[in-house]
Amino acid sequence: MRAPRLRCVLVVACVVTLLVTGLVSPRAVLAQSGLVLFTPYPGVTSKPGDVVSFSIDVKNTSDTPCLVSLTVASSPEGWHSVIKGGGRQVHQVLVLPGESVPFTLETKVPLNVKPATYKLSVRASSGGNYASLPLEVKIDPQAPSATRFVVDYPVLRGPSEAEYEFRITLVNDSTEDQMYSLSANAPEGWQVTFKTSYQDKQIASISVKGNTTESITVNVKPPRQVKAGEYPIQVAATAAKTSARTELKVIIMGSYGVEVTTPSGRLNARAEAGRESPVTLLVKNVGSADLRDLTLSSSAPSNWAVTFEPDRIDVLPAGQSREVVAKIRPDSRAIAGDYLISISVSSPEAYDNAELRVTVHVSTLWGLVGAGIVLVVVLGVYKVFETYGRR
Questions:
Q1: Taking residues 373-379, what's their average pLDDT?
Q2: Does the pTM exceed 0.90?
């Protein structure tokens, strides 16, 4: 009987000696006295901006129920860490003898955190007993996120009149089901909507089970008369514990269109036979791409002269217009009336023409000359009748 008692005394003496010298941690000794904290993954790798979750169990190794207080003993500055259980934030758990209760430590990693290994710890206490659990988070900007997008064709191109459809896959690599809120940041005037692959309804959120994926269709509609260029669209899926972002891009090739008219929109003018009359025209770029090397031409009645100032436009930006003066000189022998002149504007990519109705007036001088001629003729006839009528 003395040998077992002697061994027990030696063990106790060794433990006391180790405690005094610091060779055995208080956590290990106190864990034997009633509380144990355990997680299978005390060190994880994460990206800046992610929410890191540690699944932890607190076990009661005593023979009586324990009301255990849980606290975040240490957390890096600027990190927001909370303890959750049953979907809510908790600070106490009741643990029956010989059993364990799970809880989760969630910590939000700041976006501006530098790559390094950061330490946290959780503390459980009940009466005079306690246990602490050290944890580590390694920040690696290249680490895969718990949520990610997979996009087969992130860049689409086409005309401004088209609507663009991106097919993307939302991947939930975590073990928990997630409810994601969907959002997009697009240029002003652009419309972005989300739909699932199995229905034609617009959605703003989607649920994805753990370790599964969901297909999402992103419809993008440019505004009218959008200019040619590259337009990025930021798409995000945000859940309570994780998020993902990706960039889509639409390249607008541009549409070409030109229109010739007048500032008032009325295609008529007045001119005088034999004299030059100016008419102001308006050349519009009604497409979404710049037009280059625009030239003006006309088709007029015989012996008419039509010139333009300027007769050439080097560049006409999309959505803009330019005034051009058409100088019209009708034939000097033209009689009064309405005449049609065809005005054309063309570039290597676009063409338009308009018919201008020109009302010609004859000069008053010529009217007087004509009246004089008529009067001379009348007087001559009268003289003839008067002379020969007497005979």
A1: 77
A2: no
